[in-house]
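Quick one, T. Sequence first:
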Amino acid sequence: MLLLGGVVAPGPGGKTVIWSASSGVPAHLNAVDPATGAEVARFDLPDAGGAWAVDATPDGSVYAGTYGNSHLFRWTEKDGVKDLGNPLQGETFVWTLAAGEGATVYGGTSPGGRLFGYDPATGVRDYGRLSPSHAYVRSVSSADGKIYAGTEAPAALFEIDAAGGAVRQLPLPPGLDPAGKWAYDVNVAAGHLYVRFGGAFPGPLHVWDLASGTWIDTVDPAHGLDVSPPDEEGRVYFVKAGELVRYDPRTKTTTPTGVPVTGRVANTRGIGWAELGLPDYPGRSLVGLLWRGMMFRYNPQTGAKSFVQSGIRGEPIDVTALSQGPDGRMYAGGFLNGGFAAMNAETGKAEEFHTFSQSEDMVSHDGRLYVGAYPDARVYSYDPKLPWNSTEYSPSPQPGPVPNPARLFDLAADKQIRPRAMVSAGRYLAVGTMPDLGHLGGVLAIWDPVEGRLRHSQRNVVTDQSIVSLAYRDGVVYGGTSIYSGQSATPPTQKEARLFAWSVAENRMLWEISPAPGKPAVPALAFDSLGRLWGIAGGEVFAVNTHLRKVVKRVALSDSKSSSGQLAFNPRDRRLYGAHAGRSVFSLDPLTGRHAVLKEGPVHQLAVHGSGDVYFAEGPKLFRYHQGR
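Structure tokens:
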């Protein structure tokens, strides 16, 4: 499961619960009893994939702002959950919500970088775009008639008059360079504005005094996503350096609680106060959820602390990567929620499932399964002969010491986020990546597993293009590119995808061509039994003679210009199998070009097993095409 937005507030019957949105199709708004972890309520959020934005207003309403359909939902005791539609037409993502007065809520969106308010009595108010140079209103908070909003990089912070709509940009903390940083978490508590500048991972939390209008302190590193509501003395709690701490803005001091919050994503998904009625938890206790469904509790009076697995149900996860492992099993990785699953190829039964990162690609190499993970373009090595133990993604707050999969390297310093292509390249592993928002140009990386180091890493092997597919033969890595960045909001500068050949021994480009004029991406490559290199681009499949460096055969499937596609060669029947533009699965005879549709459907992942069986995924569903059936 993956929990994003959350808040501690009254739920059904007026009892305090932890509200949280779980990602899935559809996403759900969940209410959890903080004393037991049991599910109190669960509501569908139709057509939504998830919700970063969850907040509760003083009248008892709970709001969720979603992605997938960019809708605003409202829960009340009387009416349950109601879909209020897209508050701002043209926006595709509600990133953040903040409670105002009564039943009013404020929200921020992308890709237009707009702010809105919603009052059940008067409807939606569009405050417009806060900055012509920003596409995201990432985080919002509100107090005393003012709305505070933070943007993506270069980070900017705004104060908006809720009644009049006037917008004022606030100064950044002294010495802060906003380049590459987001105003990621914005929270008002007891006369102070807390803003964490950076990204999804720990960074400095700056404190602004609302009365004096000055920055008064910095706490580093803070994890986010929120600071708690203040206690009776104006102190707040948040996660700092892997531990829950209390912060007093008057004395500018932090006090540890002894509550560990470990792993790659050690931040809260809803944090607040509740009376638990449990031994050792007198009065109000601090409670919250972590991203994988674990719930934590801390009592300031007694120091009592505990972790409990909540009763929030998991959701099906869309498959984002498929590969045969070195042990003959089929492995699958999942979207956003992550997940890592192994299936027995003979019985068709799932044998393992573990929480993990979003997988962009997987490939077997020399007895290991290598996994490319989003974000930061991280690459891991998994040994299926050893027990699973992810020190970053274990559901326990205190995972074991020896990692498997082991993290080998990442390409965050090169502004890369998606290791979209991986291939076993003789002694080496070759990886191709896609860059982060606002950047173009992927990296070609060559990893040496024997020496445990990057042998080569180079960005912009093809200018302003990502590397989204790889193949290997006789000392040469062949790469297919995409004109797009790893984030769709980044406009491309190139008109069509390229195919290139790279010498591993010499670390240099041998040649590049445009194999599919006008097509934006070559998302898959595969060699056939004759040594021809096949690729897919939109609705076209093509074959390249690598010695002549030119396309020698084209097969038209449709007129699509989609950047999605899969292609794999099956040595058992010497046919190509592919996924076409998210429309269908097909087989193709590379000798004749004859092709047939095997199944219609939105298929984006496909792999051929050594048995000759073809595996493909339709969202969270895995299919197997068995020869002879």
